[in-house]
Amino acid sequence: MNFLSLFVLVPVLTITGILFTRDLKGARLVSAVGMGIQLLLAVFLVLYYLSIRGAGNLHEMVLTADYSWYPSLNIHYFVGVDGIAVAMIALTAIVIFAGVFASWQMEFLSREFFISLILLATGVFGFFISLDLFTMFLFYELAVIPMYLLIGIWGSGPKEASAMKLTLMLMGGSALLLVGILGIYFNSAPNGGAYTFNILQIAKIHMPIAAQRFFFPLTFVGFGVLAALFPLHTWSPSGHASAPTAVSMLHAGVLMKLGAYGCFRVAIYLMPQAATQLAWIFIILTSISVVYGALGAIMQKDLKFINAYSSVSHVGLILFALLMLNKISMDGAILQMISHGLVTALFFALIGMIYGRTHTRDIREMGGLMKVMPFLAVTYMIAGFASLGLPGFSGFVAEMTIFVGAFQHSDLFHRVASVIVVSSIVITAVYILRVVGKILLGPIKNEAHLHLKDATWSEKLSTITLVIAVVGIGILPLWLSDTILNSLHPIMERLTAYLH
Amino acid sequence: MDFRYILLMRHEILLLVVALIILMVDLFTSGEKKTYLIKFSLVLFALSMLIGFLPVKPGVLFGGAFQGNALTDLFKDILNMAVLIVFLQSDGYLKKAENAEKIGEFFVLIILTLLGMDFMVSSGDFLTFFVGLETASIPIAGLVAFDRYKSRSAEAGVKLILLSAISSGVLLFGISLIYGATGSIYFSDVAKNITASPLIILGFIFFVSGMGFKISLVPFHLWTADVYEGAPMNVTAYLSVVSKGAAAFILTIILYKVFKNVTELWETALYALAVLTMTVGNLFALRQDNIKRFMAFSSIAQAGFILVGIMGTGSLGMTSVVYFILIYVFTNLGAFGVASAISNASGVETISGYNGLYSTNPKLSLVMMLALFSLAGIPPIAGFFGKFFLFTSAGSKGYFILILIAVLNATVSLYYYLMVVKAMFINKNNHPIPYFRSSNFMRLSLLLCVVGMFFIGFAGDIFEYIMSVSHLLF
């Protein structure tokens, strides 16, 4: 039994366990235990990974295991991780753990809720450990479909329409992706021999440039839909606004990063030549994402919509950084994935908790919440500061690195794009400070809000887990950054071969 | 008589024997005892299915008119399993008072159509193929009109028999043109002499039109929804799975073996048919509320996906088609099983009638959801694997645009499958279908379907086995 496979096995066992429970108490207990184990495994994985690297193991991927699944098509269950994947797994484990506690009071069809939620997480974990395109795609689709039920059944507002829109757009993206993956497969042996889905093997060959040009956009857009690439981001605001708290956390926090990770690991890594040639198209689109998302956030009145647009902007920044195709900006991109994952999850958790008390998400109807629920208010501020990139929090490290990387390009096109994207920082500060000022500070606007209670223990546990991670990365960014930088070597070698 | 004959034709002979026994027993039972006939027939058929699994060496009979090999045996076994599941699901329907007199007929007619299909699957020349096809078609018309006092059922029966006769005529005309051009009806001889001459092209067009009717490809699909709607639910299930599966299989064999030297010719035709079938099937399925009409258009769209797989040619194409049909059997029968159970218990056959089903009948809703997700191709359910390999097959020939059209169609199909899921799980209903317990046979059949849907995708060995027997063909 391979250690990494535990990351799929534990959620599956947890789901099986929930099947035997009867009510909310049982379901949430089993989920908490299962995801607690998962979190411990993730911490262990991080330490284990560091010790392996410390011991001088320089393989691109470690902890690999390879089982043949469909021999005649050369499909394998092939898993392994590098520093980036380890970081993403840790992120997922933290967010899902926090998500379970954020759903502590899910009374309606609670067993079904936790099963769907953990099924979603199973897909995400499986995706991050996979090194075979087929397995990867399978887990990717597995992560998308529970979303329909999660939003459709437990959501709020126009939930059915949002759920349908989100599912169809994401599955449409995965449709493009399927063509891309098959295209990569059938071009994986240009010199004869067996075709393969194995990422590491495909990375060793040079796919014909004509094929790259055709399949790179398909793959990039396929994953890009999940990362809310403009103009395919429209599922994101409505979907996040309608989703229940834990789902918004997981979706904005992890799934959108999954899209970005896919763009990086599959599209750019396997088709670097097309990436260098076609990057400009996507740089334009992501620049629009960044600025448009930020402006959208300013215009919104609903807390969830604000954060959904903010996610469009921030994840756009991740894609933008990846497309800068240099080591520093990619390092920043990965840091931003982690940082934004944690911060957004924290935001959505807090919004869910505030909404549970005030029964409104309209910022015009709230005010002075600092006085009645100091714990939630302070945590909200921390999330806000991390999100706008205040030094000392994770956001600063990530954004700083991205922009340093982006300004390495001295040509006019990249310069203009970078300047436009940098301007989003100011807009971000505006919308975050505006929200903090309106809902947390000032006098209490609504009499009914005077008697609201502060966070319960499960909510505290949920948020503190995330805060620790956010602050931890902010204070000690270097070891994370080092881990990522080491893992960026192979992709950089491939890219530089085409760039210079 | 050579013992080898019996062994090679064991599926057919067994079916004939089973049908005759049921017919005889049916004659000597009456009144209350008739319901025992269901169990008796089931056991008898299950036995014959088990005997069919015995491995037998491949061989050719009647100078090449009948071929038995591992692939045809496998396919007949798949059909047998499908029919067994249909039989299990028919339990509730046959126990209704108005059907008590017709129990024997139901089994005999289905077994006889299956007999025709088995001959068709094994055919080595156009004559056996055609006779098999006709043997399969005529009892189906009887089955469709089984609810003889319901005008819709009778109408569907007449519609089917008339259109079926026309399509058979067209098919036969195509075959005769091909015979005229090549001088033989044997597949192997035709394959040698075939060229892209105008006569062959004309013959091919008629041939494909005739087959298109049987598999309900667009634009030959217009009968499908009406007949599916009029027929009893279990017969509809049979039509959409067994009848369609067998026709798709033999079409693949004939295209690969007989029309091998004119591959460009049929690939162009199939490309257009595939695009049309997927798109039209999907677009029409969007607007259906009757579950049978819905499944009719869904199955038209699925046939389009099969055509995409056929485009791959070679053993990969063959394997992906057979593998997909195998999965389709469990998937579609799972969906029809639930629909049939609900129809028997409450008479509801509309999607809007399913609103709030999960609150009263959670298990049935889950089975239905699994089946629909499998049809839509969502992992880890088997349908995902089936579809993925169909697309892989087309990809091996570089038809990436076709795959793109197909996957976008699959996304559209997800919408209407989700609408059913939405009805069951999300929509509110003050008077949902009350809780009911379906018969044990029905539960067994649904269990089989669920196991199939979960198991087949993960078991790479099944795919490898089909691959290894398909290799023998080429």
Oligomer: heterodimer
Give a quick account of the main beta sheet of chain B: strands, pairing sense, barrel closure: 2 strands, antiparallel
- Global structural class of chain A: mainly alpha
Over the alpha carbons, how many angstroms does the gyration radius of chain A reach? 21 Å
Low-confidence stretches of chain B: none
Helix content of chain A: over 70%
How many helix segments of chain B? 20
**Structural domain tally of chain B:** 1
N-to-C terminal Cα separation of chain B, in Å?
A: 31 Å
What structural class do helix, strand and pairing data of chain B support?
mainly alpha
Q: Separation of termini of chain A?
A: 43 Å
Task: Describe the 3D structure.
Chain A is mainly alpha-helical. Chain A has 20 helices and two strands. Chain B has helices at residues 3-8, 10-27, 36-52, 70-94, 103-122, 126-144, 151-182, 187-193, 198-215, 222-230, 233-257, 263-285, 291-310, 314-346, 357-360, 362-376, 382-395, 400-425, 440-458, 460-471, and strands spanning 59-61, 66-68. Chain B has one domain. With 474 residues, chain B is mainly alpha-helical. Chain B is built from 20 helices and two strands. Chain A binds chain B through residues 68-73, 75, 134, 138-139, 141-142, 145, 148-149, 152-153, 160, 164, 167-168, 171-172, 175-176, 178-179, 182-183, 185-186, 214, 218, and chain B through 316, 319, 373, 378-380, 384, 388-389, 391-392, 395-396, 398, 400, 403-404, 407-408, 410-411, 414-415, 418, 421-422, 425-426, 460, 463-464, 467.
